[in-house]
Specification:
The complex is a heterodimer of chains A (about 300) and B (about 325). Chain A is an alpha/beta fold. Chain A is about 30% helix and about 30% strand. The model of chain B is unreliable at about 1-15 (pLDDT under 50). The chains are: A alpha/beta (about 300), B alpha+beta (about 325). The interface of A and B includes residues 47, 76, 83 and 88 of A.
């Protein structure tokens, strides 16, 4: 099942496009990392997927065949918006009761257990909780809805490093226990590196990179060699980004892991963060599934369009 | 396929929608402070009206209408205040603080959520306002009965019958609409107070007198026909016609009166007016039209409120 399947999706605000020509088929059962600079269109994409905003053009379905924002999609998707908006004037216990009454699927046992683990007292007002606790409360509400897809928009932005770590641990534990799919946007690459199975990089309103993390990493190498030979090498290879130093230069290239690299150049595997940074520095270079680029084709990542029709 | 990694299987049947009772609880939990405050204010006022109403009925002296006039003027402000202060934050606060991103992504869906909130609060406010105006009607009855406060007059009309509840409902709906449109609580509150006060003023000064074609009556000059004086009717206009049925100004009457001022016969002026066919005309709405007027005003306010609530739900559904 695809969790988000969109074709030529676009969203325009006034004259500027927040998102344009976005085609994706994201497979389920994975942790999907959505990265990109500020204002790249990450939030727009997520809000379209959860039905908060309607696209200007293109189509989008979620969880197989539900229309985004339809009753079936709302029932099966839990969303935690940026800054985890909750009713600040309510005590935690009442906030949970409000959430319980707004959903048909609700697991009160899960909510109680998680709050007890977090040592958040039910009588305390939401407003008096720390940023980390509010994020955890929002996550608790989302998980107690027993969703098939959890959508998290910049949940780590306001948190200190310890709270970030705890939050990620909680999300990953839920993934391990329930097998739910997660799509999470963040600038915090380090936290995502350990968790992500699938990467989507958005830049200037367009999808720049999309694919399985393992595939992406095994199809890129980092080459280090003399600067004098850089131009000659760059002509022969598919270079994503070149960083030239005085004597030594670094090339991030598309090449299979088995490729030993040119003579006189050191070749080593790349990390996710290096890969993301290289693509962020080169907004013109894309790595997308499908016939337009190398990497896994669209067919291999499980299209399920029409399966439940 | 990815079936192996898919989450727990779902029942084939479509899931049931979130029950209205659940959303009713959510609405009550979020708005109970405002509703309780409204109930306390109206309850306290009702208590005062009950006590003074009993005292007025107990005393043999004729009652002065000064106090009821002041109270009426104050109570007249309640519908716009209660309606606006409940309606304006209802959606504006969610939009302003970002909690709509929580509320509109829950299983109930934003349409059902908005309908539950708007309908429940509209109903609660209307019933509360209706109960209060029943008590007010009982309190004001002696003053209307002795003719001091005609029931159709602006000060009393809106506090009586169904008008008070209808204005409260209309103020609430307009404020909720303004809040959804403006998306900020305080500007929405200001806009709704201004809009409802303006509408109330325009209705009182310009619209209400045209609900039914006014009756016309005439009599000798000067003075009013007894049928108008005793009935507590709402006189809208008066004019005088002279010989040949032409309209004459009050100046001509005053000049004529001046000529007869030192006449030994006190009836000479009247006799002269009658002789020259001077006639005074009045248009008025009789007190018997009180209930038709109430139903007309209640009816169009109800239609306006339903429209406003429907447009608000539409705005919520299509908000970006």
């Amino acid at each position: 099942m695809t969790i988000i399947d969109c074709a030529r999706l676009g969203k325009r605000y006034g004259r500027s496009w927040a998102l344009r020509d976005c085609s994706l088929a994201i497979p389920g059962g994975q942790f999907v990392a959505l990265v990109g600079p500020n204002g790249a269109g990450k939030t727009t994409l997520l809000q379209i997927a959860v039905g908060l905003i309607t696209p200007t053009e293109g189509t989008v379905t979620v969880l197989g065949c539900e229309a985004a924002g339809s009753p079936g999609a709302l029932d099966r998707i839990a969303f935690v918006a940026q800054d985890a908006p909750l009713y600040q004037n309510l005590p935690v216990g009442d906030m949970l009761r409000v959430a319980a009454h707004m959903n048909q699927r609700w697991d009160p046992q899960l909510a109680r257990t998680r709050l007890a683990e977090l040592a958040i007292p039910q009588r305390q007002k939401v407003a008096s909780l720390s940023g980390g606790q509010q994020a955890q409360l929002a996550l608790t509400i989302a998980l107690a809805r027993r969703p098939e897809l959890l959508v998290l928009d910049e949940p780590l932005a306001m948190l200190d490093p310890l709270a970030r770590h705890d939050f990620m641990a909680a999300v990953l534990a839920a993934v391990a226990e329930d097998g739910l799919s997660v799509i999470m946007s963040s600038h915090v690459l380090a936290e995502l590196e350990r968790a992500a199975d699938y990467l989507i990089l958005v830049s200037k309103g367009r999808i720049q990179v999309a694919g399985e993390v393992d595939d992406l990493l095994s199809h890129h190498r980092l080459l280090t060699g003399p600067t004098a030979q850089t131009d000659k090498q760059a002509e022969r290879m598919s270079v994503v980004h070149a960083r030239r130093g005085g004597s030594q230069s670094h090339l991030l290239v598309r090449a299979p892991a088995a490729d030993p690299g040119p003579a006189g150049w050191e070749s080593r595997p790349v990390g996710l963060e290096e890969l993301v940074l290289a693509y962020l520095r080169e907004p013109g270079v894309a790595a997308l599934p499908g016939p337009t680029a190398d990497g896994p084709s669209r067919a291999t990542i499980g299209p399920s369009k029409g399966v439940r029709a | 396929m990815t079936a192996a990694t898919a989450p727990a299987p779902r029942p084939a049947a479509r899931q049931q929608p979130v029950p209205w009772t659940g959303l009713a609880w959510v609405t009550w939990r979020q708005h109970r402070a405002g509703l309780t405050g409204t109930a306390v204010v109206l309850g306290g006022l009702s208590l005062y009206l009950l006590v003074t109403g009993l005292l007025v009925r107990g005393s043999a002296d004729s009652v002065s209408s000064q106090t009821p006039k002041v109270i009426s003027a104050l109570v007249l402000l309640l519908p716009v205040l209660i309606g606006s202060f409940t309606g304006a934050p209802l959606l504006a606060r969610e939009l302003e603080t970002g909690t709509f991103r929580y509320a509109w992504t829950q299983g109930c869906g934003r349409r059902r959520w908005a309908i539950a909130k708007l309908a429940l609060l509209a109903g609660a406010l209307t019933v509360t306002a209706g109960a209060f105006s029943a008590i007010f009607s009982w309190y004001i009855q002696p003053f209307i009965a002795d003719g001091q406060l005609p029931a159709l007059k602006p000060l009393v009309f809106g506090l009586h019958g169904v008008a008070f509840a209808a204005w409260t409902l209309a103020a609430f709906s307009i404020a909720a609409f303004a809040g959804t449109l403006i998306r900020r609580t305080v500007p929405a509150l200001a806009a709704s107070l201004a809009a409802v006060a303006g509408l109330e003023l325009a209705t009182t000064l310009l619209l209400r007198q045209h609900y039914l074609t006014p009756l016309t009556t005439h009599g000798g000059v000067p003075g009013m026909p007894p049928s108008l004086l005793s009935g507590g009717s709402w006189v809208l206009s008066s004019w005088t016609t002279g010989p040949g049925g032409r309209l004459v100004s009050q100046d001509i009457i005053n000049q004529a009166e001046g000529r007869f001022r030192y006449s030994p016969n006190p009836a000479a002026f009247s006799a002269w007016l009658t002789q020259h066919h001077f006639t005074q005309w009045w248009t008025y709405q009789p007190q018997s039209r009180f209930w038709p007027f109430q139903l007309i005003e209640g009816g169009w306010l109800l239609a306006l409120s339903i429209t406003m609530i429907a447009v608000t739900v539409w705005l919520v559904r299509h908000a970006q």
